[in-house]
Amino acid sequence: MIIGGGAAGFFAAINHKEKYPDHQVVILEQSTKFLSKVKISGGGRCNVSHACFKPTELAKNYPRGQKELLNPFKKFQAQDTISWFENRGIELKIEADKRIFPVSDDSQTIIDCFFNEIEKLKIEVLAQTSLEFLSRREDQWLIQTNKQDFIADAILFATGSSPRTWKILELLGHTIIKPVPSLFTFNISDQRIKDLAGISVKNGIASLMGTKISQNGAILITHWGLTAPAILKLSAWAARELAEKNYEFELRINWTPEFNAEQMKSQLLDYQKNSPKKIISSHPLFELPSRLWNNLLKAAEIPETMRWTDASHKAIFRFAEQLTLCNFQVQGKSNFKEEFVTCGGIKLSEVDMETMQSKLLPNIFFAGEVLDIDAVTGGFNFQAAWTTSWIAAQNM
């Protein structure tokens, strides 16, 4: 019995039925929407995984689950995901940023693949069937739903971030780590980025002030604040800290991560010496977009028409700090596109990660986001789903 009609549930059902063709496999889904996260992932293209083929490196992309996923990734990782889909006629491609997509650039390709396998293997799928109660009956489980009761030898929970499921499992003795959002963008109202929506910096450092948490990567200015990999990775690694702050906190951006503040001061003084007659605003440095460069100049109180030779050391030092120690007050968050990821779920110490079976409840298994596992953006959350589902499927 598979509870949850999402990516992890379908993947587990297919793999289990292939290994144990004589077993009856039934998928229960409380809604009428199957594979909804697959549909919207990657802007509708489905970012199925990430081309990181070393388990030790792959595990580093999981703020929750990094240690626990290391051995599971040795059993089923991104290369295995590629082979799994290609063995079913789905051609995948690796893009420049190492995200993996179907060649069709259409998530429907992945959805069709799953449904084709489900039909071929004669796996029963029941929609609008929600779990109401779960109890032990000798060596089996009684599953009571809103429609009918089932008896199962083994159950896989692949229900994602489902408070209803977590409540039932909590009543049966499992510890639920309180879920909070992960992977979100920062809402900022600040003159330095006002009217700059769409402007991006290829590489910057985003840091949560008062902590040692920082992430690097591209930074994109939006109508509501900041997003892109550096921000999204920071939101994931600092998810609990930011929730405790109610998403009101101080963010520091280094727009030029190859330099710290003192190094930047030296760089600007050298440039002043070598190019004294140039107008500062007309010649942006460090590959920064000119409009952002000029807004930071304005914040440093350097006039638009000023030449380098006329800038005081104090003004240059102020500008160096705007480039490397640029602080913003964040006042809230927004979802990353249509995707919604949380950290939290079944406490990992209560799960045998070699089999994905509960240590507390016999023949109860877990896969995907029902566990306290989450990742940075780029296909890593799906890879955790494929890995945990595959392992559970082999051991149910």
Explain this structure.
The protein has 396 residues and is α+β, with helices and mostly antiparallel strands. The protein has two domains: 2-180 and 342-395, FAD/NAD(P)-binding domain (3-Layer(bba) Sandwich), CATH 3.50.50; 184-335, no CATH class. The chain is 33% helix and 25% strand. The chain contains 13 helices and 21 strands. The chain has helices at 7-19, 36-44, 55-59, 70-75, 78-86, 107-120, 163-171, 229-237, 239-244, 261-274, 290-299, 313-324, 380-395, and strands at 2-3, 26-28, 49-50, 92-94, 99-102, 124-126, 131-137, 140-145, 149-152, 155-157, 176-182, 184-188, 200-208, 214-221, 225-227, 248-254, 326-335, 341-346, 351-352, 357-358, 364-366. The strands form six sheets. A six-stranded antiparallel β-barrel has the order 12-15-14-13-16-17. A five-stranded parallel β-sheet has the order 6-2-1-10-21, covered by helices on one side. A three-stranded antiparallel β-sheet has the order 3-5-4. A hairpin with a 3-residue loop joins strand 14 (214-221) and strand 15. It is elongated, with a radius of gyration of 25 Å. The termini are close together. The model has no long low-confidence stretch (mean pLDDT 96).
Question: Can you lay out the helices and strands and say which pair or pack?
Answer:
Elements: E1 2-3, H1 7-19, E2 26-28, H2 36-44, E3 49-50, H3 55-59, H4 70-75, H5 78-86, E4 92-94, E5 99-102, H6 107-120, E6 124-126, E7 131-137, E8 140-145, E9 149-152, E10 155-157, H7 163-171, E11 176-182, E12 184-188, E13 200-208, E14 214-221, E15 225-227, H8 229-237, H9 239-244, E16 248-254, H10 261-274, H11 290-299, H12 313-324, E17 326-335, E18 341-346, E19 351-352, E20 357-358, E21 364-366, H13 380-395
Parallel strand pairs: 1-2, 1-10, 2-6, 10-21
Antiparallel strand pairs: 3-5, 4-5, 7-8, 8-9, 11-18, 12-15, 12-17, 13-14, 13-16, 14-15, 16-17, 19-20
Helix pairs in contact: 1-6, 1-13, 2-6, 10-12
